[in-house]
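Last lecture ended with a question: if I hand you only a sequence, what can you say about the shape of the protein? Today we answer it with a concrete record. The protein is Glycolate oxidase. Below, first the input exactly as provided, then the predicted structure, then a couple of comments.
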Amino acid sequence: MRMPEPDAGVIARRREIVSALRAIVPGEGVIVDESELRAYECDGLTAYRQLPMVVVLPSTTEQVSQVLRTCKEMGVKVVPRGAGTSLSGGALPLADGVLLGMGKFNRILDLDFANRCAVVQPGVTNLGISNAVAHEGFYYAPDPSSQIACTIGGNIAENSGGVHCLKYGLTTNNVLGLEMVLMDGTILRLGGRHLDAGGYDLMGVITGSEGLLGVVTEVTVRILKKPATARAVLIGFPTSEQGGDCVAAIIAAGIIPGGMEMMDKPAIHAAEDFVHAGYPLDVEALLIVELDGPPAEVDHLIERVEAIAHSKGCCYSRVSTSEEERLAFWAGRKAAFPAVGRISPDYYCMDGTIPRKALPLVLQRMNEMSEKHGLRVANVFHAGDGNLHPLILYDANKPGELEKAEEFGNDILRLCVEVGGVLTGEHGVGVEKRDLMTDQFAPVDLEQQQRLKCAFDPDGLLNPGKVFPTLHRCAELGRLHVHKGELRFPDIPRF
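The predicted structure:
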């Protein structure tokens, strides 16, 4: 994985750049000492590390605006960062860039229960929103596994999902309004407390844009009333393929669970040893299916789900009988990623999405890839929407194992595209999948995406080196540079 070559001229001006930033964010808001910069050298994809040139921690929208405007005027790159939980290297710093940390934007600004929305700053954690509205019986639906730490600003950057996105949608389906700052310092407001807005869906463009278009400084999210009842079913299968067949059959029957997750045997054992959730240890695959709604509806749907599971050869079934037991079922799934860390020195967490009907085939092919690369894999994924999270187990202290894990991961992602899926479901492209974008998109598709980038950031200063395998200059994509009202070489005829 290669990043853009650092600009020696920018690095030589480091003292001048730091001085300009300190004039905007005084006190401890600008970090330059190497020991303190070390905390920002990577995000959740710890295989790749790079010290930033400088870190700035603004606390107001006006400071963000001034920082971006100053960096644009000085020709300095900027990498926005939330909590740093990204698993695709989206917040990987640049040696010649400013890392813009949004951790001080951590206040809940307004709770509007009448309009069923909350206005928060981007540094508020995902779970923090649900906790803030729980006393009125509300919650925020998207729930990534890292929800205790990840922030709503980062969720918007990656269009995060989670267990309950099957029924209640991804981040993009639950954001109503944004305040954001462009690279030239312009402050924009998109959407609001209303259900929909006229004109182009710019919020849809920003959500999932991975920090390449602007910096979000305020968010209005949809909050939902908690369901009257929620119960979960644990369903075990002799093979992963049978579990995959059951997932497809449940959706085909017209049942949309609140959540439907699947784990294979290595992940089951790791989670059970870590959390003691009561998982069966003699099955090859475990489904967690949650049904929510009125009690009568939930009881009926549980019967239907269990009948479908038995028709697909399930060998274990257990229904939660209390809220504590339901939460225990989910505790194992939510802790699956750290739990796997107990059985391997290192692991590489992948993220790809496939059509549900391809699940049995993909699981079989991943087992074959595991043999080919000589590395174990534990599977934890959002089965209902086909979002896979294979965890490739390796030891970084063994020469060549990281490279083997990367190639194994690339093969999995190519397989996702081959069966009609996509490279990412919720982790984003970042640097991890950047060089695989040509496996999914033709050159004309990538160029059109880069034209959109140019409309927001014509100098390519926001989070460069991410998402696009080859970043063209805007002029190369048909954009003409105008300076002081004149085109370059004005004497040349243009048509």
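Comments.
1. The first helix runs from residue 8 to 12.
2. The radius of gyration is 24 Å.
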